[in-house]
Design goal:
This protein is mainly α and about 280 residues long. The chain is built from twelve helices and no strands.
Amino acid sequence: MTTARVRAHRRLQAFRVVVLTVLGLFFLVPLGSMAAYSVRVPAGGRTLDFWRQLGQDPDLRGAIVTSLELSLLTVVLMLVLLVPTMVWVRLRVPGMSRIVEFLCLLPLTIPAIVLVVGLKGVYAWVTYFLGDSSLTLTFAYVVLVLPYAYRSIDAGLASIDVVTLSEAARGLGAGWFTVITRIIVPNIGAALLSAAFISVALVLGEFTLASLLSYTNLQVVINLLGKSDSQTSVAASLASLVFAFVLLILLSLVGRRRGARRTAPALDLMAPPVAKEG
């Protein structure tokens, strides 16, 4: 490498270090402040009593379970709705792709308060048929995650030849359910994991719809708890952020392992055959 290239490389490395340091401080300083506040005693000293209350408060414990159930139900319903629809549009009616994209991205342009006004009448029927359970928020949350999940899944489908794969499978006698579950889904696993994580992160942090529709989830309980016990509320908020971060790491590790497993057989097939001696 020439001297000019070495200097350019060093400047690039220094720039990366500065950017990563600034971003790290931007995220870590508020988190560190939250952690320090959640263990501080007004008279002086430190205590973990506020963190212990996270598992002892029945309302908070119930809200955590409810939010986790909402996350799971939202992810499942979102995937069941989007994946078959997007695959069918790409295969049969590609001219409808713009319309489907517009419908999926529409919630981004509608404020949450407007969504609540529109959903009030719908949820009167939902409550009549399914009961007044916080888990019915799944339907509203699926609408909220549509724009982000659509973009992720669309990028995954664009990275593979859906038409060729499906026609080959259909030519071998596979049904549409088999084509989607055993051919398309394994090839867009990373995109599905990304869509799932975005959905989980949104559901765990959602407050507006649940509060205005008079339902209880984790953020609503944290907000109510903050009015009487601010330190326990901050501890619960920090715990939810850490949980979402750990979940992101786990999903990324799973996606990398799946990608490595799919790549290894392909490399074996591309390798030239070894001649046998004798």
